[in-house]
Design goal:
By secondary structure, this protein is α/β, with parallel strands linked by helices. The two termini are about 20 Å apart. Helix content is about 40%, strand content about 10%. The chain has 16 helices and 13 strands. It has a seven-stranded parallel beta sheet. α4 runs parallel beside α8 and α10 crosses α14.
Length: about 425
């Protein structure tokens, strides 16, 4: 049984897992919202929708207060935790418990932020199926070697940094996220589950049987205290599109100019003035080809103001475009960044919502791009970052090194074999 938060970045990797499991002959139920029925059924899995249908994208975009600068930092993250992740826990668990009565799964697989299985994870081990989590975002649990998730600070080394991390982790868990942790425990109590100690973001890898992180170790901060459940299996990349008509300008990708791709992803893309338009303006007079995608919104209203070196589309499959790209400008969705690195493409990062500042911090730490530390950079700032990457070959070299590490990974092989092992062990444990 695969359970996902109904947002594209959380659901798409588990759709790939479902497709592989079905192909291997396993019976798969996919537990998410009705919005994903067509995509789920295309994998051969059976969709069982949440009783209370919602889409995380709709909840985020439909909240006008979220566009305010004051709600794009910690306040916005906490609002998302309340409404999208912790708030639905009780209803998700009730649906999940009913579903297990008719579909007694051997293994339940969740994405990082699907909390509906927590009551099972915190209950008696013999009373539940095996539990696995797929890490679809930067690794978020506390460590003595890192600042708390959300701070987007570089890790550092030595006793001074460890003292800093220890203090900040306490403040984050008891002060910054204290109200979220109390809400989560109230929800657990409503489900008849015991409470947990510590931070909400710290729980998942400590209660599941396997935490399979969809990324490579070279993109994550080194930690000396990772829980034994955690393994890096490599990013789960989008499968190639079955059909896509190349645009009339496609041959321009091979004309020798550097190609710069700019995208605001699939979620925070309602306002092109945050990144898309500034990038096009900043690079208008550079000898580069800019390929911009809106990620969903209609590009037609923007076409009248396009510089001559810009090609704008609603969507282009990354597996077709990225092999031609020299720099990618993005607001930092985890999946899109992994797609870029899988193609050895260095990045310019400009995001300030959800986990995007943490993704940008890792891009800087790994040396594979420039972090602009804002979600709404100026045209000048974007252009300087692009020129810096094009003129300093270390960025491309480090991106190619991560590309090689990703190419050596076998995420779907590792995940499916782990799930089969968990099922066999669970059968032995539960009799």
């Amino acid at each position: 049984m695969l359970c996902t938060t109904p947002a594209q970045g959380h659901t798409a990797p588990l759709l790939s897992i479902a497709r592989r499991l079905v192909a291997d002959g396993h019976e798969v139920v996919f537990f998410t919202t009705e919005h994903y029925r067509d995509k789920v059924e295309a994998t051969g899995a059976q969709l069982v929708p949440f009783g209370a249908d919602y889409d995380a994208h709709d909840l985020m975009v439909a909240n006008p207060e979220r566009e305010a600068a004051s709600n794009r930092g910690t306040r916005g993250v906490k609002d998302d935790l309340r409404r999208i992740f912790v708030g639905p826990l009780v209803g998700q668990y009730a649906d999940l418990a009913r579903l297990l009565e008719t579909f007694p799964a051997d293994v339940i697989v969740v994405d990082t932020m699907f909390f509906g299985a927590w009551p099972l994870a915190l209950g008696p081990r013999a009373d539940r199926p095996a539990l696995a989590c797929i890490g679809v975002m930067p690794y978020a649990a506390n460590s003595r070697d890192t600042a708390p998730f959300g701070a987007a600070w570089q890790p550092g080394r030595g006793p001074v940094f460890r003292a800093r991390n220890r203090l900040l982790n306490v403040i984050a868990g008891h002060v910054v996220l204290g109200d979220i942790n109390r809400l989560a425990n109230r929800c657990l109590a409503e489900c008849g589950a015991p409470p947990f100690k510590g931070s909400t973001m710290n729980l998942m890898p400590r209660v599941v049987d396997a935490y399979l992180h969809a990324g490579v170790a070279g993109f994550e901060y080194p930690r000396s205290d990772l829980p034994p459940s955690v393994r890096f299996v490599g990013p789960i990349l989008d499968p190639p599109s079955s059909h896509f008509d190349l645009h009339a300008w496609w041959d321009e990708l091979e004309q020798g100019r550097p190609v710069v791709h700019v995208t605001q992803g699939t979620l925070d893309n309602a306002d092109p003035g945050r990144l898309l338009l500034p990038a096009m303006q900043g690079l208008a007079h550079d000898d580069v080809l800019v390929v911009a995608t809106t990620g969903g919104p209609d590009p037609e209203p923007l076409r009248s103001q396009l510089p001559a070196n810009v090609r704008l589309e609603r969507f282009i499959p990354h597996h077709l475009l990225l092999p031609h790209v020299d720099v990618m400008i993005t607001n930092g969705g985890y999946g899109g960044v992994q797609q870029a690195l899988a193609n050895g493409v260095p990045l310019v990062m400009a995001g300030d919502t959800e986990d995007k500042p943490e993704v940008a911090a890792r891009v800087h730490w790994a040396g594979v791009g420039v972090n602009l530390h804002t979600g709404k950079p100026s045209p000048t700032k974007i252009a300087k970052a692009v020129r810096r990457i094009l003129n300093q070959p270390d960025y491309a070299a480090r991106s190619k090194a991560l590309q090689a590490e990703i190419a050596a990974s076998r995420p779907l092989d590792d995940i499916t074999s782990t799930l089969v092992d968990l099922a066999e062990k669970n059968a032995a444990l539960t009799g």
